């Protein structure tokens, strides 16, 4: 019986049916659900790794040992994993190895837009791109076949809309492919220069064979209709184009690297005008232009953000494609005036332990180098307490760099903030750098006992593994001490007075220091405690607004300041900043 599955769930099902035995990942939207789903299948070892580089190395090791393996990440995670990626294409594999990368057009939950297809081309590995959940499952299984046939890792490129859309999937049986024998092969798996040169030759020869495979692959297929225009598309972009121009002829690509040169030429010779519809960069369009073929693309379709049926249809209309081919329903859409809708800027959750930290940092008027996670929201008003946010783990290096550029006086006015999961991901190396190079940076680890932004995944310092089973718990205090940091202290971010004192002491010290601001995420189920809500005594409230400046969504300021008790978690932070003690537990309005 068919199942209605997310694209990500379908990838997990495909991995299960392909006989995968090892799966690894670091959580990152929009890829996270793949590994969460895989962890529920018996017969597959799954793990959250400390970062994407480690995750790929784990999967590659499993593949070399003889087990089919898969690694999953979002597009920026591929930057972290780029080092082993490029060399894995040289070593090749033993059992199949698939690298799933989910791009995020439109940056729904990312710090940039990247097109991972370029990584596939740069690393000389094949790239498959499904357009719906059934293809997500089927292409995953096919990726393992290609991987073993051509002795190469294979990239499966997902995008947000395919990852997070549901469509019907026909389940199949799990393949019992067993373990391949491991044979020591120094020339293949030890990439010293002499061996690597030989493998480079093998890589080039393999790429020629993959080119030939792409020409005949069933997942690259032509659909002839009206031949006055032909459209080449892949993945989610194919769906948009198909809806926008149902009467057009299509070359639907399932393998987007290497591209099928002869098939593309054949298609272009049989249509009058050629368009490429693709999200983000001009990957396919540029390739076709190198063939000397006239093609239209980004002149009519946006180069940034997600595409949509409306955008593609409007682009084709602007290109004067005849109406008989197009679906012009977009022209009849009703425009909604959204200017009167109150803005709803993102904010830290009620009861978030990071709020107290940012309140203190703003009060002290410090420069704050930040990092990737839900605590990045501390950059927004009214907290406005973050100055930089570049990539995972960058906060500590940024602060250290500021000190080296501006001198030690700057370190007294600067702190780095970083989440517990991110600190383990790539922050620890920054701290080592600070200590090694005589820095005095103060680092605040915002330890909320989970990976919050992506939906509460475990990590090495939570004490649980991906299945929620007890696991070894990394001790952050001892880890920092092992680096050499002598000034390590744990503070409660809700105890504002004590926390402020701790920050003042550490930024004025003449050596590196770490403050671990430890409070579990207010939404974390295993520790969630809802205290009685607070209320405001309107008789004594002077309306100073200090409580409002905390940015808590439970606080309201209309005719008078009040607290929405359905949202209040009883953290008491607002009561702590109230100068007239007008905020106490319970509704005081009478």
TrEMBL record:
<dbReference type="InterPro" id="IPR002880">
    <property type="entry name" value="Pyrv_Fd/Flavodoxin_OxRdtase_N"/>
</dbReference>
<keyword id="KW-0813">Transport</keyword>
<feature type="binding site">
    <location>
        <position position="568"/>
    </location>
    <ligand>
        <name>[4Fe-4S] cluster 2</name>
    </ligand>
</feature>
<dbReference type="GO" id="GO:0030976">
    <property type="term" value="F:thiamine pyrophosphate binding"/>
</dbReference>
<feature type="binding site">
    <location>
        <position position="571"/>
    </location>
    <ligand>
        <name>[4Fe-4S] cluster 2</name>
    </ligand>
</feature>
<dbReference type="InterPro" id="IPR017896">
    <property type="entry name" value="4Fe4S_Fe-S-bd"/>
</dbReference>
<dbReference type="GO" id="GO:0043805">
    <property type="term" value="F:indolepyruvate ferredoxin oxidoreductase activity"/>
</dbReference>
<feature type="domain" description="4Fe-4S ferredoxin-type">
    <location>
        <begin position="532"/>
        <end position="553"/>
    </location>
</feature>
<feature type="binding site">
    <location>
        <position position="578"/>
    </location>
    <ligand>
        <name>[4Fe-4S] cluster 1</name>
    </ligand>
</feature>
<feature type="binding site">
    <location>
        <position position="544"/>
    </location>
    <ligand>
        <name>[4Fe-4S] cluster 1</name>
    </ligand>
</feature>
<feature type="binding site">
    <location>
        <position position="574"/>
    </location>
    <ligand>
        <name>[4Fe-4S] cluster 2</name>
    </ligand>
</feature>
<keyword id="KW-0411">Iron-sulfur</keyword>
<dbReference type="InterPro" id="IPR017900">
    <property type="entry name" value="4Fe4S_Fe_S_CS"/>
</dbReference>
<dbReference type="InterPro" id="IPR009014">
    <property type="entry name" value="Transketo_C/PFOR_II"/>
</dbReference>
<keyword id="KW-0004">4Fe-4S</keyword>
<dbReference type="Pfam" id="PF01855">
    <property type="entry name" value="POR_N"/>
</dbReference>
<dbReference type="InterPro" id="IPR011766">
    <property type="entry name" value="TPP_enzyme_TPP-bd"/>
</dbReference>
<dbReference type="Pfam" id="PF02775">
    <property type="entry name" value="TPP_enzyme_C"/>
</dbReference>
<keyword id="KW-0560">Oxidoreductase</keyword>
<comment type="subunit">
    <text>Heterodimer of the IorA and IorB subunits.</text>
</comment>
<keyword id="KW-0408">Iron</keyword>
<dbReference type="InterPro" id="IPR045025">
    <property type="entry name" value="HACL1-like"/>
</dbReference>
<dbReference type="InterPro" id="IPR029061">
    <property type="entry name" value="THDP-binding"/>
</dbReference>
<feature type="binding site">
    <location>
        <position position="541"/>
    </location>
    <ligand>
        <name>[4Fe-4S] cluster 1</name>
    </ligand>
</feature>
<feature type="binding site">
    <location>
        <position position="552"/>
    </location>
    <ligand>
        <name>[4Fe-4S] cluster 2</name>
    </ligand>
</feature>
<comment type="function">
    <text>Catalyzes the ferredoxin-dependent oxidative decarboxylation of arylpyruvates.</text>
</comment>
<feature type="binding site">
    <location>
        <position position="547"/>
    </location>
    <ligand>
        <name>[4Fe-4S] cluster 1</name>
    </ligand>
</feature>
<keyword id="KW-0479">Metal-binding</keyword>
<dbReference type="InterPro" id="IPR017721">
    <property type="entry name" value="IorA"/>
</dbReference>
<dbReference type="GO" id="GO:0046872">
    <property type="term" value="F:metal ion binding"/>
</dbReference>
<dbReference type="GO" id="GO:0051539">
    <property type="term" value="F:4 iron, 4 sulfur cluster binding"/>
</dbReference>
<dbReference type="Pfam" id="PF00037">
    <property type="entry name" value="Fer4"/>
</dbReference>
<keyword id="KW-0249">Electron transport</keyword>
<feature type="domain" description="4Fe-4S ferredoxin-type">
    <location>
        <begin position="559"/>
        <end position="588"/>
    </location>
</feature>
<keyword id="KW-0670">Pyruvate</keyword>
<protein>
    <recommendedName>
        <fullName>Indolepyruvate oxidoreductase subunit IorA</fullName>
        <ecNumber>1.2.7.8</ecNumber>
    </recommendedName>
</protein>
């Amino acid at each position: 019986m068919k199942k209605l599955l997310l694209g990500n769930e379908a990838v997990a099902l495909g991995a299960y049916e392909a006989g995968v035995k090892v799966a690894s990942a670091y959580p990152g939207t929009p890829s996270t659900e793949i590994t969460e789903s895989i962890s529920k299948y018996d017969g597959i070892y799954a793990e959250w790794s400390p970062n994407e580089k480690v995750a790929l190395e784990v999967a590659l090791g499993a593949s070399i040992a003889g087990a089919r393996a898969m690694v999953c990440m979002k597009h920026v995670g591929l930057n972290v994993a780029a080092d082993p990626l490029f060399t894995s294409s040289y070593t090749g594999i033993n059992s199949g190895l698939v690298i799933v990368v989910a791009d995020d057009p439109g940056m729904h939950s990312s710090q940039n837009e990247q097109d991972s297809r370029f990584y596939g081309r740069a690393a000389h590995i094949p790239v498959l791109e499904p357009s719906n959940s059934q293809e997500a499952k089927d292409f995953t299984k096919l990726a393992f076949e290609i991987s073993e046939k051509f002795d190469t890792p294979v990239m499966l490129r997902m995008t947000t809309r395919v990852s997070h859309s549901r469509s019907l999937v026909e389940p199949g049986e799990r393949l019992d492919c067993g373990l391949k024998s491991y044979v020591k092969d120094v020339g293949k798996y030890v990439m010293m220069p002499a061996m690597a040169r030989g493998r480079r030759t093998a890589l080039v020869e393999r790429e020629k064979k993959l080119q030939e495979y792409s020409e005949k692959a069933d997942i690259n297929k032509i659909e002839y209709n009206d031949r006055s225009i032909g459209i080449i598309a892949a993945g989610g972009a194919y769906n948009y184009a198909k809806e926008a121009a149902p009467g057009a002829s299509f070359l639907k690509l399932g393998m987007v690297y290497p591209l099928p040169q002869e098939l593309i030429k054949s298609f272009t010779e049989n249509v009058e005008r050629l368009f490429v519809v693709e999200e983000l960069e001009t990957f396919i369009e540029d390739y076709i232009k190198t063939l000397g073929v006239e093609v239209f693309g980004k002149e009519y379709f946006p180069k940034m953000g997600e595409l949509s049926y409306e955008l593609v249809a409007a682009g084709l209309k602007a290109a004067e494609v005849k109406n008989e081919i197009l679906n012009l329903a977009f022209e009849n859409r009703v425009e909604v005036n959204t200017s009167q809708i109150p803005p709803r800027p993102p904010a830290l959750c009620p009861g978030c332990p990071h709020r107290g930290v940012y309140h203190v940092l703003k009060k002290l008027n410090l420069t704050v180098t930040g990092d990737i996670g839900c605590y990045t929201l501390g950059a927004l008003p009214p907290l406005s307490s973050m100055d930089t946010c570049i990539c995972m783990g960058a906060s500590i290096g940024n602060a250290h760099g500021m000190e080296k550029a501006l001198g030690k006086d700057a370190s007294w006015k600067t702190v780095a903030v970083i989440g517990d999961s991110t600190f383990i991901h790539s922050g620890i190396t920054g701290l080592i750098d600070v200590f090694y190079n005589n820095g005095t940076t103060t680092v605040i680890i915002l330890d909320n006992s989970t990976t919050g932004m992506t939906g509460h995944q475990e990590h090495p310092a939570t004490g649980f593994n991906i299945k929620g089973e007890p696991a070894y718990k990394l001790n952050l205090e001892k880890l920092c001490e092992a680096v050499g940091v002598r000034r390590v202290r744990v503070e409660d971010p809700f105890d504002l007075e004590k926390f402020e004192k701790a920050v003042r002491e550490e930024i004025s010290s003449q050596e590196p220091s770490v403050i671990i601001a430890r409070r579990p995420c207010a939404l974390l189920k295993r520790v969630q405690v809802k205290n009685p809500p607070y209320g405001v005594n309107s008789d004594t409230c002077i309306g100073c607004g200090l409580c409002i400046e905390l940015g808590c969504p439970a606080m309201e300021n209309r005719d008078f300041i009040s607290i929405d008790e359905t949202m209040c978690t009883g953290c008491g932070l607002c009561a702590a900043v109230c100068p007239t003690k007008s905020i106490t537990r319970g509704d005081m309005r009478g």
